[in-house]
Write a structure and sequence with these properties.
Helix content: 40-55%
Radius of gyration: 37 Å
Shape: elongated
Distance between the termini: 93 Å
CATH topology of the largest domain: Heat Shock Protein 90
Number of domains: 4
CATH architecture of the largest domain: 2-Layer Sandwich
Length: 524
């Protein structure tokens, strides 16, 4: 401080002046004590210690830092009410410190103190988040006045924060269910369309508007026939609205928009307490980028598989030739080693075939031929394909059909692969003399095929991942049952490609039931 009691910094002799400033200290002691935590950041020790002494005498808790970097560390570790910082400091100056504080996302009250007081500095500091500006030289009264105003502002910030919290809480607890639901729906990253019983659009959130390239104002009140361009989506919505004594079930489909975007849609009827359909909701998800990534993955898998298949096939062929040429005078161990090598090569080829199947199921559905297919015929073909394998294990492989089955629209090759995978798995994981039963049933709008076995079963935890690529249940690994971990993943992809789904129920040591549900062809 100088003789007038003002802090000037290095140019003055503040150490002597501070001790002489008894009148200022007396005034401080007479002030009403207000608690608050202050951090003083200044490279001049006299400024730090002087401010600390004045503030502590006034009842504040004070911490100090000799430069911006040390101060930033303290700010990260503790929540201060006021930050007093110089501008010109080594290592990190005050402006840089303000930038770092802004990145922290904390609402802090920062007062800049400096001997380089210019209007430009004040404006710059304010833009960077500083609350106030205290030029040197200053006296204790000026310092304390700034602190008082800063604490008032800090209290205001806290009040605003509490008001924000109250506002958010009130929004979540709002008794008006429609307003709350609309707020949530409009914030969703998925598109949402709500259609009433008469087929009119009653709700369209911003993402649905973006996906359909149609404003909410133009859509609300108009019918599905007027608004929805894609025929598959329109047909699914209309079918959902026509449900009588409807059950809560969703219809899933994929389609491409006229703008080249890939969309996944889920159509679910809205059911009242009398189980009557009073409308439907369509959830739309733009999966264009996901499809691009899937195609890249599929192309890579296909490339690797093709590159490996030929040499491995040759290896298997050579091993077969060697085995055919082995006579009784060759050592038995040599024979066993070559057999193991052949089996390993055969296992690799099986893996590659599964990878190729996986790649084929990842291809764009528009490249696949879909026809009206008799599910029972395809299931019986798959059963007969594996009958010899079941008989070799003394297993009972049977088919039960619940009446005449309607046709479904499907790719026959994929459908055979789907059911064959499930039947093959059931035989593989069922002990000798066990039962494998395939049941074909019809619901109102779907055909369901259940593959039921009396095998080793699947734990509840494993069921959560059983359709993941390359996943194998631990009990299958422990029993040394070979497999690639791709069969069920392929089955799931095929079911979804046909707008259906697959699920499983199982109990360890009892058996498993895999259910595939696919939509029937609706009358045009």
């Amino acid at each position: 401080m100088d003789e007038s009691g003002r802090f000037r910094g290095q140019a003055a002799a503040p150490r002597r002046a501070l001790a002489a400033n008894c009148s200022a200290v007396a005034r401080i002691k007479e002030m009403t004590i207000k608690k608050g935590e202050i951090l003083v950041i200044d490279d001049e020790e006299v400024i730090r210690s002087g401010c600390q002494q004045i503030l502590e005498m006034s009842g504040y808790s004070v911490a100090v830092a000799e430069n911006g970097r040390v101060g930033l560390d303290k700010i990260i570790q503790h929540d201060y009410d006021i930050i007093l910082t110089d501008i010109m400091m080594p290592e990190m100056d005050g402006m840089e410190l303000l930038d770092e504080i802004g990145r922290l996302g904390k609402e802090l009250v920062v007062i800049v103190i400096t001997g380089y007081a210019t209007l430009d500095n004040a404006i710059t500091a304010g833009r960077k988040g500083a609350y106030d500006y205290l030029p040197k030289p200053f006296n204790p009264d000026e310092l304390l006045a700034k602190i008082e105003r800063g604490l008032d502002y800090r209290a205001h910030l806290r009040e605003v924060q509490l008001l924000r919290q109250d506002r958010d809480r009130n929004m979540l607890e709002c008794s008006n269910e429609r307003a709350r639901t609309l707020t949530i729906i409009n914030s969703m990253s998925e598109g949402v369309l709500a259609i009433n019983r008469q087929g009119q659009i009653v709700l369209m959130n911003p993402m649905a508007s973006k996906i359909m390239r149609l404003s909410e104002e133009r859509a609300i009140g108009r019918t599905v026939d007027e608004i929805v361009r894609n025929p598959d989506l329109k047909k699914s919505i209309v079918a959902s609205l026509q449900e009588v004594q409807a059950e809560l079930s969703s219809t899933r489909l994929e389609f491409d928009t006229v703008y080249g975007r890939a969309i996944e849609a889920s159509i679910t009827p809205i059911i009242d307490e009398n189980k009557e359909c009073i409308g439907t909701v369509a959830v739309l998800i733009d999966v264009t980028e996901d499809k691009k990534i899937e195609k890249m993955k599929s192309d890579f898998v296909s490339y690797v598989a093709h590159e490996l298949k030929a040499p491995l096939g040759a290896i298997e062929g050579y091993l077969n030739l060697i085995l055919d040429g082995i006579t009784a005078d060759k050592p038995q161990t040599e024979h066993e080693m070559i057999e193991k090598a052949r089996d390993r090569a055969h296992g690799l080829i099986a893996l590659i075939n599964d990878l190729l199947d996986l790649s084929r199921t990842d291809r764009k559905k528009s490249l696949k031929e879909m026809h009206a297919i008799d599910v029972e015929k395809v299931v019986r073909e798959a059963v007969e394909f594996y009958r010899n394998r079941a008989e070799a294990r003394s297993q009972h492989l049977t088919v039960q059909v619940d009446g005449q089955m309607p046709l479904i629209r499907a790719n026959e090759e994929d459908l055979f692969r789907l059911y064959a995978n499930l039947i093959s798995n059931a035989i593989k994981y069922t002990p000798e003399n066990g039962d494998v039963r395939v049941e074909i049933k019809r619901t109102k709008s779907h055909v369901r095929v259940d593959v039921i076995d009396t095998g080793i079963g699947i734990s509840g935890e494993a069921q959560k991942h059983i359709f993941d690529e390359f996943y194998r249940a631990q009990n299958a690994v422990d029993k040394k049952i070979t497999g690639t971990g791709l069969g069920l993943s392929i089955a799931k992809k095929i079911a979804e490609d046909h707008h259906g789904y697959i699920d499983v129920t199982s109990e360890e040591g009892v058996g498993s039931t895999f259910r595939v549900t696919l939509p029937i062809i609706q009358d045009e």
